[in-house]
Write a structure and sequence with these properties.
This protein has 118 residues and is of the alpha+beta class. It has a single domain, classed as 3-Layer(aba) Sandwich (Glutaredoxin). It is 37% helix and 14% strand. Helix 1 links the parallel strand 1 and strand 2. Pfam families: ArsC.
Amino acid sequence: MKKVFYLNTCDTCRKILAQFDLTDWELREIKKVPIAKEELAEMYKKTKSYEALFSKKSTQIKLRGLDVKSLTEKDFKDLLLDHYTFLKRPVFITDKEIFVGNDKKNVEELQKFFGVNE
């Protein structure tokens, strides 16, 4: 299994995806095809945390008046399943590894994984 979960309207996602040969990867645009419970469970197995998958930059946080500091793991899980913008993206997942988000360290790890030097 090799999947990438991303948002097509996200410039950062597009920029990161463009760096790699994703020919044999399944590309999932999460607005068109939301993440399934089973997929989220698979991500959780690899991260051991729903919070690690949660985007604290989602516009839905303010719109819903959420206090992120008071959220439980169950809250993070429910929110991730409820709205696509709560997923930190992009998410690259293989049988053995997961790369979550667009922070510099994660992108560097992805580049090593793909054998790309920036």
